[in-house]
Design brief:
single chain, 79 residues, alpha+beta
């Protein structure tokens, strides 16, 4: 499962997170852009967990954290 979350600040800067759950791992991709510029090169992070359940809990916790920080789930918007 993958979700893409986006936030734009009042000045127009953008930050995008793509969070992917893959069995016992979470992959996080971060892209940022100053106002008026396209999103830049991605930075990646991979987190490994002992069980699928731990990975799933961490995945949904990360999505909730990002939503609390003002990120909008672009995948939910297109459905």
């Amino acid at each position: 499962e993958t979700r893409t979350l986006l936030r734009r600040d009042p000045a127009g800067a953008q930050t995008s997170f793509r969070v992917t759950l893959d069995e016992r791992a979470i992959r996080v991709e971060l892209k940022e852009a100053p106002p008026g510029q396209p999103l830049g090169e991605a930075r990646f992070q991979r987190l490994w967990f002992d069980t699928d359940a731990e990975a799933r809990d961490a995945y949904f916790a990360r999505l909730e954290q990002l939503a609390g920080e003002g990120f909008v789930d672009t995948d939910a918007m297109s459905a």
